[in-house]
Amino acid sequence: MWLNDPIAFLESQWPGKPSREIKEAFAALKGILKKEAPKGRERAEAGAPPKHFNILDVVRRTCATHDFLFLSRQLTYHIAAAAETRRSSGRESQIEAIISELIGHIARRAPRGSQIDIEIKETTLKQNPAVELLFRAADEKTEGLDKTAFLKQLSESPIIACKEALLKEGGQFSADLPEPRRPVFKVVLKTIEAERLAAGDHEVFKYDIAIKNITSVRKRFGIKKSQSLVHQIEEFVRLLVRHPIDIVTSMYDRGIITAIYETQKGAAQSVAGRISSRLGAEKFKIGKMQVDLDFGYRLSALPAIPLKRIADTSR
After folding, report:
1. What global pTM score does this model have?
2. Less CB within 10 Å around the terminal CB: N or C of the chain?
3. Alpha-carbon distance values, 140 to 57, 156, 172 (Å)
């Protein structure tokens, strides 16, 4: 009966051959309906203990929901995994939603006819056994970006919500650009063998470091040398956090360096204090000349964004 699957019925009754845009619209609608759950179920899952599941099954199922998107863009995918993979622990539906958002993000930015590579392997998380998922694919929209610019672009995109959502599941999310136009996204999940970390044990924070006297520095040394100084400070801050799990980006024209990091509740100030203390003691130079810098700091919590409300800004 058509009421059992109204979307499939509409597809079958579509006049003529559906265009690529129509196919993508049907695929997106199916994905939205699949992720939408009754509120009662969401509340039940929120209070339910973590369950154990096979992450390979989740990845296969999630890829299947994106079949129309893959077909419309002529994409293929390859999944590589060990014969025996530890079972992951967490809310399976939420992990599936995170992976779905990530795969959709990658697929919409990949060149037509290209391949998405997914690798599943074992690793450690906080000294405990864990499962690591690596997603690799070409990305047309990273053309001309270096690693710093790529991470800045990522930190300003809705996909950053995956990081917050994974933290609530006791996992981690990070991204890197090891080679031009081919980013790598990493998802790490806890396993049944790992010690069960309390949900919400960690939070994500944004720490803005502003060079308050950047205008006078720019007037004295020029724009290019001033930007080089900001890059120098950015690299110094990156050494103080767990890159690439924690993200460090800069706004070179405004002299602002931003660190987005995760830490246990109540420890945000200690991480920020360590960064500011090291910056205050460090001597920065332009050429052979030491530059006197006046730093300003602003720490704020990064708000959680429900994955189902994320608007895709990459289209």
Report:
1. 0.59
2. N
3. 29, 18, 25
Burial class (CB in 10 A: 0-12, 13-18, 19+), 178: exposed
CATH number for the domain whose boundaries are 7-198: 3.30.565.10
pLDDT at 226 over 90: yes
Give the burial class of 313: count Cβ atoms within 10 A of its Cβ; 0-12 exposed, 13-18 middle, 19 or more buried: exposed
Task: Inform me whether the pLDDT recorded for 43 exceeds 60.
Answer: no
Q: Which of 158, 173, 144, 94 is nearest to 315 (CA)?
A: 158
DSSP 197: P
Query: According to the model, what pLDDT value does residue 7 have?
Result: 60
Local confidence band at 18 (pLDDT 50, 70, 90 cut-offs)? confident
Q: Which residue has the higher pLDDT, 266 or 191?
A: 191
pLDDT at 225: 94
Rounded to an integer, what distance in angstroms lies between the CA atom of residue 239 and that of residue 13?
Answer: 58
How are beta strands 88-90 and 51-53 bridged, if at all? antiparallel
User: How do the domains of the chain map onto residue ranges?
Assistant: 7-198, 202-301
Please compute Rg for the chain using Cα positions.
22
Position 194 scores a pLDDT of: 64
Question: Domain 202-301: what homologous superfamily?
Answer: Reverse transcriptase/Diguanylate cyclase domain (3.30.70.270)
Q: What is the pLDDT of residues 71-111, one digit of tens each?
A: 999 999 999 997 777 888 888 999 999 999 999 999 999 99
Question: What pLDDT shows up at residue 37?
Answer: 46
- Taking CB atoms within 8 Å and a gap of at least 24, the contacts of 263-272 are 263/202, 263/203, 263/205, 264/201, 264/202, 264/203, 265/200, 265/201, 265/202, 265/203, 268/203, 268/205, 268/299, 268/301, 269/299, 271/205, 271/207, 271/241, 272/205, 272/207, 272/297, 272/299
Q: Which amino acid, 141? A: K
- Round to whole Å and give the CA distance between 104 and 85: 24
Q: Cα 150 vs. chain centroid, distance in angstroms?
A: 12
